[in-house]
Amino acid sequence: MPYLQKVETKEEHILHHLMQFYIYEFSKYIPVIQVEENGAYKPFDLEKYWEQSQNHAYFIKEDTELIGFALVESATESGPNTIEEFFIMAKHSGRGYGKIIAQELFSMFPGDWEITQIEKNQPAHAFWSGLIKDITDGNFIEHFEEGKYIQTFHTKSILR
User: Fold this and answer.
1) Are 109 and 72 a contacting pair, CB within 8 Å?
2) Of 39, 70, 76, 141, which is least packed with CB atoms within 10 Å of its CB?
3) Residues facing residue 58 across a β-bridge
4) Given this model, what pLDDT does residue 107 score?
5) What is the DSSP pairing of strand 148-154 with strand 112-118?
6) Any idea what the Cα angle at residue 123 is, between residues 120 and 127, rounded to 5°?
7) What 3-state DSSP class applies to 112?
8) What region, left, alpha or beta, does residue 108 occupy, with left being phi > 0 and alpha being psi -120 to 50 degrees?
């Protein structure tokens, strides 16, 4: 079974390496993403995950193998919980691991949630809208705004 492991500051380089696969996959939806001269994609700025208490970085693991990551911003007075980035390696997709981990995140951070996907990433849209519809029995709102699908729901609507 997959599980979450908090990324420690000293493991930031490992997260950056893993994120290269994510950026590679994501580049098919955003063609302006290009490999830099050094042969790697420009790294994400992860500083806020070590400095701000509402930002959380997790490795997704199965046994001891890294199979993905999740970057979460927990709710603040001005906004809901959000999944900023979420990735499961291709060889592990289709096993239900994403659903298991997403539900664990929803349990860890109760309250209002907002999940977004860019319009071109139809697999992500199908995953998130399908999962949220299933776990809330349709008790969520989805709208499309500025090239993004957005689902909003509250964890109290999740079926137990």
Assistant:
1) yes
2) 39
3) 6, 70
4) 96
5) antiparallel
6) 130
7) strand
8) alpha
SS3 63: coil
C-alpha dihedral sign at 31, 15, 96, 100: negative
Write down how long the chain is. Answer: 160
Q: Where are the beta strands (DSSP E) in 2-160?
A: 2-6, 55-62, 65-73, 81-88, 112-118, 141-145, 148-154
Question: For residue 61, what are its two tokens?
Answer: 């693991």
**Global pTM exceeds 0.70:** yes
Dmax (CA) of the chain: 50
List, for residues 63-86, the tens digit of each pLDDT value.
999 999 999 999 999 899 999 999
